[in-house]
Amino acid sequence: MIIPFLDGLLTFSRAPITWILLMTNVFFFAQNYQLSKTCQQRFEKWYDDSHFMYVQGQTYAQFQSRKMASMARTNPWHNIKEFETMGRLSLKDNDYLNVAAKANWVGDDVAIEDWRLELTDFLSLRDVYPPFILGLSAQHKDSLAYLSYQFYHESFSHLLGNLLLVLLIGAYLERRTSGYTIFIVYILGGAVSACLLNYTVGLTAAPLIGASGSLCALLGFLMITEWKTKTKLFYIFLPIKHYMGFTRVRTAYWVILLFVIEDIAGWLAQTQFTTSGVSHAIHLYGFFVGVLLGFLYQQSIRWGLWVPRKNYMAYRTAKLQRI
Amino acid sequence: MFEYKRRQQNYGLALINDRISAFLLDLAVLVPVVQLLQAPIRRLITESLLYNQIESVVTLKIINAFVFIAVFSVYNIFCTYRWGQTLGKHFFKIRIISYQGKISFLTAFIRVVFQWFEALCFGFPLLGLWLHPLRRPLHDRAADTVVISEHERALPLQMMPPLMTKSWLIAIVFFIGLVPLSFLWVAQDPIKNKRQASNESCEDFDDASLEESLHFFIVEKITPNCLKSKAQDLLWKQEESTLASIAMAFANMGEPRKSDRYLKQACQEGDEFNDELCLFVNWMWDVKSPFSEELWNYSVSESAPDFTKVILAAHLRRDGNYQRSLNILDSIDKNTILKKIVFKMSFHDLLGLERWQEAQRIMKITRFVNEEEILHYMVMELQSERKPNGLHLVRLIEFFYPDLKKHPNLRLPASISQRHPLIDEIYHRSLRAR
Questions:
Q1: What is the chain A residue with the closest CA to B23?
Q2: Inter-axis angle of helices B336-352 and B210-218, to 10 degrees?
C-alpha cells in the first residue's frame, strides 16, 4: 500500500483553514447521520423488492420507447432484458421520475396500481433524505447546492477516505501557500467541477455528494505548485521494519499514477447506463480546475499580484537546490 | 532512476522479504496502467451483462485476463533484459544476474513464462524460494539466473539450508494450487450459476405455454413464482390477457385481496372467452357454492379451455367421484405436456376405482407416474373426509407389492411406512382383522 504522507497530520494552529473545512464536513455528517440511516433502511427495502423494481423497469422501458420515438432515434435501452436492472437504473432518470406516478402505463394494471402507491411513498421520502437536500441533483441544483454538496458524505468510510486526504494535502499546501488559497481552491474546485459536470454530462436524479471534486482540485493544485519537488509517501509492503516506511517521490509521478490514471480508467469503464457509484468525471474535472488554479497562482506570484508567505520563496529555493 | 552502474562492492543473496516486497511494489505501480488498458473491456462486459449476452461476457473476461498477463510480461521482460531489475527490485536494491553472463532476451522471456506457470500451478510465483539453497524458484532455475542483493542486509552468497521441508511445501502447494483452479472454475459462468440459484424449479417449464403452466400449477408441479413470471410477462406484452389475469389470480392465492383484483380484471376483459369462464372461476374460488348444470355443460364442452376440465376432474376426485373424473380426463385433447398431467390424474382415479391393472399399465407407459404417486394417493385418501378404508388399502398394497401377500410377516417398504405411520398401522390392523 502506498499513500501520500506529505507533512502528516498537523495541529490546528499550523493549518487552521484545512481543519475548519474538515470539521465542517464532520459536522454535516454527524448532524444528519441518524435521519440518513433511517431513510437508507427504508430505501433498501424498495431496492431489494424485486417485484417493485420489475414493474418500475417495465414502465421505464415504455418511457424510453416513447421518448426515443418522439425524438426519432433508436432506443439503446431496447436490448436490456432484465427489467429489475432497468428499474434500478430508472431511479437516476429525473425526467422519468417526474412523470412516473401520474403517466398512463400499459400492462399489468393491478401491479401498476400498487406500484404507483409505493412510488409516491418513495418520492416523498426522497424529499426528506439528507443527500437529496444537501446534495446536487437534477431536481435540486440551486446555487447553494453547488456549495453544500462538497460538505456532505454518505457513509463513515466515504467521509474518512476523503477527509484523510483533504487533511494531508490541504495541511501541506496551507503551510506553503496560505489558508485563503486552500479555501479558494477547495470551494472553487468543487463548485466549478460540478458546473462543468452539469454542462457536459448533466446531473441525474441520484444526488452528487462528497468532497471528491474539491479533493481532486487540491491534488491538481499540489501537482502544479510542487511539480519538481519530491514529496513524502508512506509505504507498507510487509509489516516488518525495513519493508514499511517513508520515501520521497516526485509529486507529479504519484499524483498521476495513483489518482489520475485510476480516475481515467474508471471513467472509461462506465457505460451510458450504469456507473460504479463513484463519479470519476467530477474527479477529473476537479483535477483540471485544480491544475488551472495552480497555474493562476504561480502566474500571480510572478506578476506580483500575490505575495506568498514570508518564508515561501526561501523554502522553494531550498527545495529546488536539494534535487 | 533506472540508471545501472557497475559497482565494485560486495553483494549477496537477496532476502525473501526483499523479493516479495519488490514484487508487491511492481504490482502497485502496474495496476493503474492495467486498469486503464482494461477499462474499455470492462465497459463491454457491463454492457454484455445488461444485454444478457452471456457468451460475450466469458470471452471478454478471458481477454481481460490476457491484457493483465501481457502488461506484466512485457514490463518484466523489458526491465529484466534492459537493466536486470524492475522498478520494485531497484527500490529494494536487488537485481537479477545470469550464469551465462549478460541477460539475453531469451533468458528474460523464459523467466517470465515460468513465472506465470508457477503462478498458475501454485497461486504465487515465488513459492520455490523457501526450498532452494540459493533461493531460486522454478523460473530462476529455468532461466539460469539468480537474484542478488546490493543491500547491507544481503545474505552471504553460499548454499543456504532450505527453510522448509518438502512435505510442508507439498501441503502448501496443494492448498494454494486449489486457488487458481477454483477461480477458473467459478469464473467460467457466473451468470449461469446465478440463474440456476434463482430459477431452479422453473427451468423445466420454460417451453410450456401459459395454459400448460397453469395445468402444472394446478397439479402442484410448479411453484407460484414460476407461474407468476410467465403470466406477468404476457400481461405486460398484453397477450392472452384474460388467461394471464386468471393465472396471476392463481399465483397470488396467498394474497386474497390481490388475487380478487386479478380475477375481477380477468372477468371484466372477456374478449377471448365468455362470461361462463368467469362463472366457473368464481365457483372455483368458493367451492361450497352449488355447481350448476349450466356450468357443468360449459366445463365439459369443447369451447372451454382444458384447465377448467383439469380443475373439475381434481375437484371430483377429491369428492371420491373417480369415474366422473376419469370421463372428463378422457375428453381432454392431450398434447405432449398435458399428457403427463392427465396420466397422473387418471392413475389416481383408477386406483380409487380399484382398476389396478390399468393403473399398472400407466406406470409402465410413463415414468412420470411411479411409486411416489401410489404413496401420494394413499396419503390423500387418509387425509380426505372419507374414513380410511382398511381393506381397500390392503388390496392396493398387496397388488403393487406381491411379496407382502406371500409373506405377511414382512414389513412395509420404508418409503411407505416412514412417510405416513398411519398407513403402517391401518395395514397391519386390517391384516389381523381379515
A1: A237
A2: 20
- Separation of alpha carbons A280 and A268, rounded Å: 9
CA A124, CA B241: separation in Å to the nearest integer? 33
Could you give the CA distance from residue B133 to residue B159 in angstroms, rounded to a whole number? 5
Compute the 3-state secondary structure of chain B and give helix, strand, coil in percent, each to the nearest 5: 70, 5, 30
Rounded CA-CA distance A109/A100 in Å is 14
Angle (CA) B352 B355 B356, round 5°: 100
| pLDDT tens digits along B100-155 | 888 999 999 999 999 988 887 776 777 777 777 778 888 898 898 989 888 777 76
Local structure of residue A243 (DSSP, 8 states): G
Interface with chain A: mutation pick from B149, B236, B263, highest number of A CBs within 10 Å = B236
Q: Which of B21, B32, B39 is facing A243, going by the closest CB pair? A: B21
Contact A95, A109 (CB under 8 A): no
* pLDDT (mean) for A130-143: 88
How far separated are the first and last CA of chain A, in Å rounded? 25
For residue B164, pLDDT beyond 70: no
**Are A269 and B47 an interchain contact pair (Cβ–Cβ within 8 Å)?**
no
Laid out side by side, the sheet with A2-4 consists of A2-4, A230-236, A244-250
Longest Cα–Cα distance of chain A, Å, equals: 77
CB atoms A243 and B248 under 8 Å: no
Q: Enter the DSSP assignment of B203.
A: G
Runs of H (alpha helix) within chain A: 16-48, 50-70, 83-90, 94-99, 109-126, 130-134, 145-148, 156-176, 179-200, 212-225, 251-255, 261-269, 280-302, 312-322
A-B CB pairs within 8 A amount to 83
* Record: contact B50-A79, CB cut-off 8 A: yes
Q: What is the pLDDT of residues B321-369, one digit of tens each?
A: 888 888 888 877 666 666 777 777 788 888 888 888 888 888 877 766 7
pTM: 0.74
* Chain-chain contact of B36 with A80 (C-beta, under 8 angstroms): no
Tell me the C-alpha to C-alpha distance, in Å, between residue A83 and each of A125, A265, B218, B262, B346.
23, 28, 28, 22, 41
Closest CA to A113 of A52, A169, A173, A193: A52
DSSP-assigned beta bridge partners for residue A236: A244
Instruction: State the Cα–Cα distance between residues A209 and A278, nearest whole angstrom.
Output: 10
CA-wise closest residue to B211 among B311, B285, B284: B311
Contact B392, B347 (CB under 8 A): no
Residue A58 vs residue B181, higher pLDDT: A58
Give the gap in angstroms from C-alpha A233 to the nearest C-alpha of chain B: 13
**For residue range A275-314, what is the model confidence (pLDDT) as tens digits?**
667 788 999 999 999 999 999 998 988 887 776 665 555 5
Measured CA distances, B265 to B235, B256, B262, B271 (Å): 11, 14, 5, 12
Residue B101 pairs in a beta bridge with B98
Interface test with A, best of B36, B195, B248, B268 (most A CBs within 10 A): B36
